[in-house]
From TrEMBL:
The gene is smc_4. Residues 621-636, 687-713 have a biased composition (Basic and acidic residues). This is Chromosome partition protein Smc. It comes from the Bacteria. Residues 1-24 form the signal peptide. Residues 716-771 form a coiled coil. Residues 614-640, 679-713 are annotated as: Disordered. WD repeats lie at residues 258-292, 293-334, 388-430, 430-471, 778-812, 914-955, 956-997, 1040-1081. Pfam families: PSCyt1, WD40. GO terms for molecular function: electron transfer activity; heme binding; metal ion binding. SUPFAM superfamilies: Cytochrome c (SSF46626), Quinoprotein alcohol dehydrogenase-like (SSF50998). The lineage of its organism: Bacteria, Pseudomonadati, Planctomycetota, Planctomycetia, Planctomycetales.
Amino acid sequence: MRNRFASLGMMLVAVFVATNFAVAEEKPIKPEKVDLGRPVSFEKDVFPILDANCIACHNVAKKEGSLVLENVEDLIKGGDSGASVTPGKPDDSYLYQVASRTEESFMPPLPNKVGAKALTPKEVWILRQWILEGAKSSGKSADAGVAWQSLPPGLNSIYSTALSPWARYAAVGRANRIAIYDLAAGSEVAVLNDPALLKLQKDGKPFYPQGAAHRDFVHSLAFNNDGSLLASGGYRVVKLWKKSLGNVVKKIELPAAVTGLTLNADRSVLAVATADNSVSLWKLPEGKKLVDLKGHTGAVTGLSFTPDRSKVVTSSADQSLRVWNAADGKQISTMKTPAVINALTVSKDGSQVIAGGANNSIYVWPMTIPAPKEGEKAPETPAPLFELKGHAKPVSTVKLVLPAGTQLVSGSEDGTVRIWDLNGKKQIRSINHGAPVTDVDVSPDAKNIVSVSVNGTGKIWQLSDGKMLKEFRGDLSKERQLVLATETQTVTKQKVALADAAVKAADKNVKDREGELKKRNEELAAAKKALPEAKKKADEAAKKLKAAQDELAKLVADHKKKGEDAVKAAAAQKAAADKAVADAEVKLKAANEQNQKAIAAVQKEVDEAKKALDAANATKPAKDDKEGEQKKKEAVAKAQATFDAAQKKLTAAQQKKANDEKQLTQAIQTAKAGIKKADAAVAAAKKQAESKPDTKAADKKVADAEAASKKEADAVTAAEKKITSAERSVKVAESTLTKIKGQLADRTKEKAELDETAKKVDAALAEAKKQAAVLTPIKSVAFSEDGKQVVTGDDSQKVRLWEVASGKELDTLSGHTGAVSAVTYTSKSTVASGSADKSVLIQSVQPVWSLIAQLGVDPKDPSKVGGSPISNRALCLDFSPDGKLLAVGGGDPSRSGEVILFDVASGKVVKKLGDAHSDTVLGIRFSPTGKQLLTGAADKFVKIFDVATGKFVKSFEGHTHHVLDVAWKADESTIVSAGADNVIKVWNIETGEQKRTISGYSKQVTSIAFLGLGDNIISGGGDKTVRMHTSSNGKNYRNLSGSTDYVYSVAASRDEAIAIAGGEDGVLRVWDAKTGKLLFSFNPPPVPQEQQASAGK
């Protein structure tokens, strides 16, 4: 039994590793009765126990060993090792045995890395009692049944990742937490927490001490089209997190346009120069005004704090340089300058003012002008300590190279940046920017210089040798529009090529079908031409057959007539004989009747005579009456004579009767003999009539004629069938040709439309290039504290952040309504910008992520999910290309696979496809045009649905296990699917056929995505690998190494430069996808010591 359930024991908890905690000897846990006052509820009582110790690895998304412990049905069904619970029999239930520690392997094992604890005696009793009561589910909603538990500390499996559209940010879901990483900075910039969850407490302690984005695992993540929204999927809810960039920390309203900004040494005070010839000082971060510096009669052109923060030095178009007390705003000193000073700075020790003049020179004056000797008048324009010459046009900017402070960097309208040795009072090097320089800055480590120009370019130079490291230019928005336009052109060209191929194929098909129709018509004509000759031969053969048949019929008819005549004659003879017998019998009967009558009459006479005789004899005369005696004698004699005569007459009549009978009987016998003879004649005639004539020759003649006729008739039938078949073939060919011509017309129309689209796309690209080529003059620049970024302000009213290493624009901060004249970092995370709109904005340069909506739940009480249209976990998400719709995939395992479309703006359900699949939907993607939706599910199917109608369009069948993810190629000609059957399948969208199967994984392929616009794909799998293939040929051209455990999720940038992956080890890895080089490994947060200690108890 132990061996049978060994794998189940491993499944019951997350993957555990040994730690240094000491563990007491394991002992069975004796149940301790709990007085619930009601039957044990799975949802209320048992589920929380399993959720805290088992469900981390046995949920619908992970499903280790095919075991799910989230609901009763799946729990009883068990996994690969069989049922884990036997209702009514806790002692026979392996789950109870290992949980109560009465049967090894004990679960959860102690110690472990996720903080799972051994069940308490009361928890063991609850589990036992529930099984005793039949292991039933109450069937109540999640709200009524689930007693939420915080996830064990140390649980950091990454089930979901997402890459922002421009690959700046990576989002990762670890357990129920979400972290955001800035891939430009290589650091974590945000951890997303639901404020409502942070407030929850249990036993006076935070319910989620590490914070939480969801109460359940974060199963899915997706950025919208512009990266401003992140959607995260949990249990029956999807949360929307909005990224805000450039949040205004403070806005300072001013009386005139801002012309300059500078900070004091500790960045606690901001000096702002405005077009009304004044300077104001503001306390940071409060933004409280401290003092105004007024006195200049012309625009303030330069300003700088002294290193000790006590003074402010300003220059002006009024050709004066003034020193002010920063505390009270009082002017300390003033001097006239030989020319308008465009920019200034203060030496490291605060003893000198370094100023760049409109007369092309750089002047170095002492901070304190020496008093004139007694009797001497102070000069109107004091002589500088020294002057640096070299620029050919006005100096526009000067910056001190710190921390040494011995070098100076200047920029000029002559297009050069120059580096000066202040101690040696000489130029070290001149660097050609190529256009009038408006501002420069030096990196905090003094290694790099940045210069910006009126031509809209910025350049990073190496201070040590003047080598240009990077050039930056342009507008991020315009650049991205250019990228989008370029991508659109590339995809359009692909589609045009596909359409062109389709037109050519359809045209060839039409020609082939026309040839086929011609061939069929020729076959029909030939068949019709052959039919008359076949009919003629058939008619001749039919005539010959008829003649032979007539001849045979005559032979048979003649023979029959002869027999019939003989039968007729014999019948006549028989009839005559029959008549003779009948006549004789009639005569005999008549004679008998007549003779009988005569005999009867004579018999009567005899009887009467006898009676008279008897009467005479009976007369008794008297004894002596002789007369009487005589009379008696005479009477007797007379009576006797009469009697005798009558008797004789009777005898004669009887004799006559006998004679007549004899004579007539003889006649009958004679007639009957005639009948017998006639019968023999009839029989002979019938035999003759029934006999068959000798038709052998005639039969052969007929048979030969029939065979010939059939042959010719068959030839006619064949010819007719050939015509019918040919006619059918012609109709099919005509129908097919009509259809193909229609397809050709459709393809031609599509091609023409695409050609027109291509023209518009080309025009849009040309316009995008034109717009991108228009560079806005950059007025100001400053390095960040770490020197990795610079901030610029320009005439487009934007503040831009640039990455020094790559020269790429990272972010654009909006907010101003006028040209931005000055920028500076006020802290690591904020910048100040001054504008012609008469304001200074202090804005955050770090994105802020805020929870703005929860889809599927009541906004009045988001904690309750019972009424959510999302029936279970939101396992996959995708935004439509325009960001207006959010597709959510999920469903109940083994019951349904649902797809829900939400309107992002309102949070309302637009469409719900509850029966999209027969099992949970695990992968979902909008098509690049947003018109169709691609899904993959546990039912092994890949399907496409129409977004507008929700109707099913097409399915793709071929996987032998769950489909875990899906992806579209940019031109929508191909899709790919990742399966739990350890393969990737590549499909032709139009035909629905498999193009190929890509194998090589030893475990499930969990995640897949197309790289850029071509055929390359990236995928991750349970065998710890991240692989890159070419879908068109299946070649595995690169693997990204480093993963140490099961990989659940991968993503890649649109330019194929960045790839990310996360999995069971909790590490988010970031690679250069083009080289395979690992760029970053972002480890999961460590478990706090107090939680580690708690987990080990």
